[in-house]
Amino acid sequence: CCPQLEGLCSFLQLSTCPEHLLVRFCGWLLALTPDLSYTSAAILAEQLFLRRVLSLTQLPSRHFMAALASFCSKYSQPFCRVLVTAVLREPGEGAQQTKLVCELVEECLEPDCVRLVLSQVLEVPLSEKLLPVVQAVLARQEVLPPELLDLLVLTLCRQAPAFATSLSYAKLVTAVLTVYQSQVS
């Protein structure tokens, strides 16, 4: 039903509905039984949030954050696959988008989704924009699978010359060595 769901979202103009209605709509979605399929949740994440997140130029409203948090609480995997991937791949500074992803990592996402975000970050070339996201992941002090931790350390080592004068990078390396000292040699 993907084309029908996309058509319904377009018909209802969900991508541009007022944010206070977005909160209500997300509350209604969470009450549905059975739960939405992964594909349906991904379509809704894209339709409800993607355009709004990518166009942020200032801190999001409390209504928008409430809608994001509620949707993310139940459908975090499809949400991360759609939104976080788009934010990470978006060219430019994207300061508000980066702050939003950091806030979601710190406050909303379950441990498996925190690891998913880290793996998504490590799939793209590191930049100053992405360092706070990795820092937010490390602040959660989640247990990382050995292969993900190895990839993080390898990526940081490979990227060291590009960040020779970056204070954020130095803080990130220090955090990795502090949080995962027993696993990093």
Write up this protein.
The chain has 185 residues and is mainly α. Helices cover 70% and strands 0% of the residues. The chain contains ten helices and no strands. The termini are far apart.
CATH overall fold name = Serine Threonine Protein Phosphatase 5, Tetratricopeptide repeat
What average pLDDT do the residues reach?
88
The number of domains is 1
Quickly give the structural class.
Answer: mainly alpha
- Helix/strand order: HHHHHHHHHH
Poorly predicted runs of 5 or more residues: none
Q: Please give the radius of gyration in angstroms.
A: 18 Å
CATH architectural group: Alpha Horseshoe
The description of the largest β-sheet is: none
Assembly type of the chains comes to single chain
CATH class: Mainly Alpha
Distance between the termini: 50 Å
Instruction: Bin the helical content.
Output: 55-70%
**What fraction of the residues are assigned to beta strands by DSSP?**
under 5%
How many helices in DSSP terms?
10
Overall body shape: elongated
- How many distinct beta strands? 0
Pfam family, one: FA_FANCE
Organism: Podargus strigoides
InterPro entries: FANCE, Fanconi_anaemia_gr_E_prot_C
Protein name: FANCE protein
Write the layout of secondary structure elements.
Elements: H1 2-12, H2 19-31, H3 38-54, H4 62-74, H5 76-89, H6 95-107, H7 111-122, H8 131-139, H9 146-159, H10 167-179
Helix pairs in contact: 1-3, 2-4, 3-5, 4-5, 5-7, 6-8, 7-9, 8-10
Pfam families: FA_FANCE (PF11510)
GO biological process, one term: interstrand cross-link repair
Domain Fanconi Anaemia group E protein C-terminal: 4-184
